[in-house]
Amino acid sequence: MQEVIFALSTIIAIAALGTLLAKMIRQPPIIAYIIVGVLVGPLGLGLIGPGENAEIVQLFAHIGVAFLLFIVGLNLDIRVFKELGKVATSVGVIQIALTGGLGFLLAKALGFETMTAGYIGATLAFSSTVVVVKMLSDKKEIDTLHGRIALGILIVQDIVAAIALMALPMIQSGGSFFAIAQQFGIVLGVTSLIFISTALLNKRVLDFLAKSQEALFLFGIAWALVLATLFDTLGFSLEIGALIAGMSLASSTYTFEITGRIKPLRDFFMVLFFVFFGSQLATSITSTLITQALIFSAFVILGKPLIVMFILKAFGYTKRTNFLASSSLAQISEFSLILMLLGYSLGHISQELLSLAVLIAVITIGTSSYSIYYAHTLFTFLSPLLTLFEAKKKEQKQTQGIKYDVIIFGSHRLGHKIVEAVRDLKLKTLIIDHNPRAVINLQEKGYTTIFGDAGEREFLAELPLDTAKIVISTISDVQANLTIQEHLKTIKSKASYLATAEQPHTALDLYKSGVDYVIIPHHLGGDLVASIVKAFKLDQGKYKKLGKDHLLQLLKGKESSTYN
Questions:
Q1: Which of 33, 257, 300, 533 is packed most tightly, with the most Cβ within 10 A?
Q2: How many CA atoms lie within 13 A of 294 on its CB side?
Q3: Could you report the per-residue pLDDT of 490-529, keeping only the tens digit for each?
Q4: Which residues pair with 407 in a beta bridge?
């Protein structure tokens, strides 16, 4: 026992140091955990190797995977398909099929067997939700158009990966079609019973449990582990049970509460999962293994983004949106590692393939973290070479020679409110948006709207900015806003220029460049609430009346929301 505790303590301590180092060099924690696994594995300190230590760490790793998939399941509400939209769903499915298929063919070309090549194709097809969301959140780009496209694709990938996790244990070598169909039937039957029972008991039981935060927390853990154990006992994987446990509670009003309470526990066990996976680099690192890892990594880093860019081009997006969204997906996923580990435990793949997956994960996650962070700089440098990925210009109203009082860049959220205000003032307005769906919707409503990217100098030169009285940019992309300001200076425009920034330090940069007024949404929100409190003081009736008015506005906005 002392030896096990010493091993775990050492692993956690090294992982903590590795995380600090990863943060210093702008790397996500996942890559630090995998590298720590390599260091403490058979090729390093030997803290995880044959024996009791490895069994305990592997047990913790399985628990971590169960909690991860439970939380993924909690976020896979069936209603999510309505929110994703046709574009994200279509792009996600097509991307998985093309990337997985080409990855399979590449593996076959390198001499891998059919089943092994299938696992490699699936591994290369998925991208890391954890890495992408963390990096885009740090850059405040989750709510941008390219951020929403990337997130939509990742959600579709997670759903497909979840289905793959259910299917893999059933597709055993040599299993007949009837046997596989029978297993699918058992899974569907048990899953249906679970969903029916939770639908009947969900609200009543959870309402009672929610009276005690500790009870709700323990219920979440128990529900995940009991169903995981049930499916494991039935001959399926522990992962399937945990995922279904989460999905069965996804429509509950307490989803976020359960997720928030279990996340810290999941994070601890997930450290050990990635450490354990890193320790699976147990075979000697040969030149052949390195060559294969580099070839597959190059496909993920270069090939996958190219595939996504071609698909997005077909849906009418600009080369800038295509590049920024696709460059976020240039890594393999935590689901890729789980699929590989599951395949190894089922005897479908060898230890050497696990080692290959470790190397691909380290290379692609490490490289993509920098490509995401410096995506805008990379786009500026590569822009002349990306003309191939520019969508064909849509038929739009001719703007040359027409004078507009107001030109607005971006119609999403904040822009939507400004568009409505300008319309009420009866000012001649031109709206520019780089989301083709938003352009079509606005044109159907009678607005003069054109499709284009504010970050492109050539596009700005085509606009009648020299005659505008006010130019408003509601997009939070600092580089795009600076490009607009530079162009206004070049043409000696006398228009008032209002730009948007998410953070005070970027607002200062915009002011220094000559922007007349910078909109910082959360500052404006704070000022508004402060003025309301000062005006209403302790008068509850006024707050309720204001709330009713706000509710009516939200309902009206929901009915006509065509900007998302």
A1: 300
A2: 7
A3: 988 888 999 988 888 888 989 999 999 998 888 888 888 8
A4: 430, 471
